[in-house]
Predict the structure.
Amino acid sequence: MSPLWSSEAPLPPGVVKEVDGVFASFVVAPISVRIVRRLLDTPVTPNHVTIASFGLRILAAYLLLAGTWAWNLLAAVSLLAGFTLDMVDGQLARARGTGSNFGAFLDKFTDRVSEVVVYGGAAAGVAGWSDESAATIWPLAYVAIALVLLRSLADEMVVTQLKVDAERDVHRDGTLTRALRAAGVDDTRQGGTWIESVKRLLWFSEGERLAALSIAMLVLRVDLYFWLVILVAGPSWILRLLEKLWRLR
């Protein structure tokens, strides 16, 4: 992706994650990197950006309460702007070499809290249409929220597993990678192959979730988004969590 911003001064290596969600890598990263360049010589800190990102996503949740297309459009813009800043905070910290445990915690904490609040705002907006809508949307929202929190736990298990494997000097492939290899498919790790992109899409990272939710908001079918999380993404998250727990036993 470097040609997209090659006309500007290069940032230090590692500022942009080599492996990230597809939406984050190909849609948001070209924007976030430009913002990082403009913030490098300012007093703005990564934690300031994290708080701004959090505020935009909470604003999106508030706008969703209206449940109308116009307000949902504004909510989608606010939500995606917040996600862009969510990428900026980490990139800015890496560019300056000022990352901290507190900053990492604040980023993760605000990500999960804001996503739960956005789901609640989206559900409340739909519930305002009628009692029948309320009876349908809230159970879907609760299950989707639970699955997203489980996915966050699975992410932590992945990080823990990587640390354990590093200490043991071993490498363990995931279920999908082993299946691809058994089928004779070359799975180049982190090499930008279509296989890697498919695996990242199946993992339904935060960028993919917020993009899909924004589309669902604009077509006034938030329920379809919740079903997508429950029926498509949820099972893979649960399986990955169980797999990581099994490996760490």
Remarks:
- The chain has a mean pLDDT of 83.
- The radius of gyration is 19 Å.
